[in-house]
Fold:
Amino acid sequence: MATSPAEVQLPEPLGVGAVLRRSGPRLVRDGFGPLAIFFAGWKLIGLGAGIGAAVLFGVSLFAYERRQGRPAAVVRLALVLVAIRATVGLTSGSATAYLATEIGIDTVLGCAVLGSLASARPFASWFASDIYSFPHEVRDSQSYRHVMGRVTTVWGVYFLVRALVRLTALLTLGTNSYVLVVALTDAPGLIALLAWSVYYTVGVFRRSEEWGPMIATAEAQPSQP
Structure:
């Protein structure tokens, strides 16, 4: 027997502020952390040390997220990207080549994200559980598929634009200035895009006939101490 929306219970508050406080710092850490660790190791010790530190950081993140019971999909992707960067850096022996890999990664990511729109599970749905534990009834709904498709489109465009910005910076600036550009744009960009993704998702669910009443009822209940 199918479960009606009224019978579905949210595991946690679905407010924008609450979701961002729980997930925002983690996602920024996972997305920007490996590059920051690499740059620190490279400048303080050397290229090999920077790459090794970035790999160790990614593995540690994965182990931690799994211990917390989260799918760690973001960290899994980060580990793959760190492995690509390490391979390029070690074989080329060039920090510039290592940093340029970021441009190729963003380009491939953007194309893959937009390409996933043709599948039953677009890119955003792969990582949604790292941000919020949606009940399976919600994940199977039309509202959820619509939201994931729209969020996936925006993230795909973001990766392509970020690749263009990084390419411009690498061609016109030195490696130090390039990393500074990345540092000044990546974290704010990720936070802003994450905030929009959560705001848009919550807004669609609240306005939907399918899940709006359930969310309103859950928010009307007093919070647990």
